[in-house]
């Protein structure tokens, strides 16, 4: 193959020049020969010493498990293009037809993504009071505890025992940016603390409640892991706590049932304080039903609400979205 032979000390500059000229042959490893480097070229280049030689092919690492997994052709189009990564654990949603190939799919994920040590398939929808799902082990270690990094904090958690979604990282950062130094925050459904621990970096005090004992156990560990000393973990039903404290900012991250806890949220926020409400809504009518419920509860309590911001957080199901509504309560 045709190549240009250049002095080693000028190799990088000349490589860039060959790219600019559009003559560098792609997919080969440049060759070293003593004080010289040889670059493969697609045509003769004026002003350079030209030689004829062989080059090794560049081995491209696959980007996706789909490039290496062995499954029958008829089910290949069903392979999901993405999956969740929590710490060093991958969780993938497989259609029924792909479940017989779960081990092969898990193995392919481990081969392509070296930092992943265990792969599970979703075995059910998120359900129950604790909002957890069943998991089916596909490949790698059969371990469900991990440490996840997001927004500059570390969160230890067990994916089988507590709720956690890495897809909410951007939303949590949005709420962090709204939080003002000196605020008191009430995280009504705190889980292992992705909001509570993050907001504790800015707020004066964070009350963090959850009914799942495992979530509170990990929250306590995460408080230590991130060296924050202003989070108060509360194990129990938030209904027993609400109204007994007064916060500048209340977080209601229980989208499936948040509407049932609006009274508790409004009784726990100070006059002029802000509530971050989450819900699910169909594409054609994302916010209005939730707004109506918020208005009805505030009326019942003799308060007023001012809607500040409404946004889609992430897709949830076909044509369904996880939505966020920020509103101020005036008492
Ligand atoms: C959707 S998860 C959110 C967890 C966390 N905020 C996060 O972003 O990962 C909702 C959490 O609310 C908790 N929960 C459900 N009902 C509750 C209640 N009545 N009182 C307190 N916590 C509750 C569940 O155990 C679960 O951890």
State which percent range the strand residues make up. Answer: 25-35%
How many domain modules? Answer: 3
In DSSP terms (H or I, runs of 4 or more residues), the helix count works out at 7
Distinct small-molecule ligands in the complex: S-adenosylmethionine
In short:
This protein has 331 residues and is α/β, with parallel strands linked by helices. Helix content is 21%, strand content 34%.
Question: Could you characterize the architecture of this molecule?
Answer:
The chain is of the alpha/beta class and 331 residues long. The chain has 3 domains: 2-57, Alpha-Beta Plaits (2-Layer Sandwich); 65-143, GMP Synthetase, Chain A, domain 3 (2-Layer Sandwich), CATH 3.30.300.110; 163-330, Rossmann fold, CATH 3.40.50.150. 21% of the residues lie in helices and 34% in strands. The protein contains 7 helices and 19 strands. It has a 7-stranded mixed beta sheet, sandwiched between helices. Strands 3-4-1-5 form a 4-stranded antiparallel beta sheet. A 4-stranded mixed beta sheet has the order 7-8-9-10. Helix 5 links the parallel strand 14 (205-210) and strand 15 (231-235). It starts with a strand and ends with a strand. The structure holds S-adenosylmethionine. The site of S-adenosylmethionine has 20 residues, from strand 14.
């Amino acid at each position: 193959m045709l190549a240009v032979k250049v002095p080693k000390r000028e190799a990088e500059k000349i490589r860039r020049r060959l790219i600019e000229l559009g003559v560098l042959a792609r997919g080969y490893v440049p060759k070293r020969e003593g004080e010289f480097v040889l670059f493969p070229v697609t045509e003769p280049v004026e002003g350079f010493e030209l030689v004829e030689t062989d080059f090794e092919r560049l081995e491209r690492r696959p980007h996706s498990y789909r490039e290496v997994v062995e499954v029958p052709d008829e089910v290949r189009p069903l392979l999901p293009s993405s999956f969740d990564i929590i710490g060093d654990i991958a969780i993938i949603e497989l259609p029924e037809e792909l479940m017989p190939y779960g081990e092969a799919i898990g193995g392919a994920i481990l081969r392509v993504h070296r930092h992943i040590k265990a792969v599970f398939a979703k075995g059910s929808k998120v359900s129950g009071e604790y909002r957890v799902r069943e998991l089916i082990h596909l490949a790698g270690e059969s371990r469900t505890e991990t440490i996840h990094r997001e927004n500059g904090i570390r969160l230890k958690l067990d994916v089988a025992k507590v709720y956690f979604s890495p897809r909410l990282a951007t939303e949590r950062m949005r709420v962090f940016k709204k939080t003002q130094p000196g605020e008191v925050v009430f995280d009504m459904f705190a889980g292992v603390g992705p909001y509570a621990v993050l907001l504790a970096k800015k707020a004066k005090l964070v009350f963090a409640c959850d009914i799942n004992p495992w979530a509170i156990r990990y929250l306590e560990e995460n408080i230590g892991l991130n060296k924050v000393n202003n989070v108060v973990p509360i194990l129990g039903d938030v209904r027993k706590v609400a109204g007994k404290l007064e916060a500048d900012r209340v977080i209601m991250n229980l989208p499936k049932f948040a509407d049932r806890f609006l009274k508790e949220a409004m009784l726990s926020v100070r006059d002029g304080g802000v509530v971050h409400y989450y819900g699910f809504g169909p594409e054609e009518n994302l916010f209005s039903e939730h707004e109506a419920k918020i208005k009805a509860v505030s009326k019942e309590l003799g308060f007023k609400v001012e809607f500040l911001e409404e946004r889609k957080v992430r897709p949830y199901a076909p044509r369904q979205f996880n939505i966020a509504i920020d509103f101020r309560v005036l008492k």
